[in-house]
């Protein structure tokens, strides 16, 4: 993982990136970004249950995960949602050679097909 000041955690196949603490004694905040890589056996859990669980954790300013991305290697595709007012709203989607572009919470520009060997 990059040495960029963030802590990276892999939990149940999800990449969780909480913001780095600003002060040594500061409590760790909610994850800034959760990324799911969908698999055939867990597709429903990943796209519905895990996303719903993160969404129900609350508003982005009160311990909710502000950004949720799902990567589907079968299509291939990437879908991004941002937590707004306690609800995830889709902010970006790209399939195949179409370019996925976002600036929040990190700058990313890539075609989902580039992720597949």
List keywords for this structure.
single chain; 117 residues; mainly beta; six-stranded mixed beta sheet; two-stranded antiparallel ribbon; 8 strands; 35% strand
What does this entry look like structurally?
Helices cover 12% and strands 35% of the residues. With 117 residues, it is mainly β. It has one domain. The strands form two sheets. Strands 1-2-3-4-5-6 form a six-stranded mixed sheet, with helices on one face. The protein is globular. The mean pLDDT is 79.
Short description:
With 117 residues, the protein is mostly beta strands. The chain has one helix spanning 43-56; strands at 9-11, 14-17, 33-37, 67-72, 77-84, 87-95, 100-102, 108-110.
Strand adjacency order, main sheet: 1-2-3-4-5-6
In one word, what is the shape? globular
Tally of contiguous helical segments: 1
Report the β-strand fraction as a percent range: 35-45%
Overall pLDDT metric: 79
Instruction: Indicate the radius of gyration in whole angstroms.
Output: 14 Å
N/C terminus separation: 20 Å
> Which series of helices and strands comes N to C?
EEEHEEEEE
**Main β-sheet, in a few words?**
6 strands, mixed
Helices and strands: which structural class? mainly beta
Share of helix, binned: 10-25%
Q: Runs with pLDDT <50, length 5+?
A: none
Q: Got a strand count?
A: 8
Task: List the domain count as a whole number.
Answer: 1
* Oligomerization category of the chains in this entry: single chain
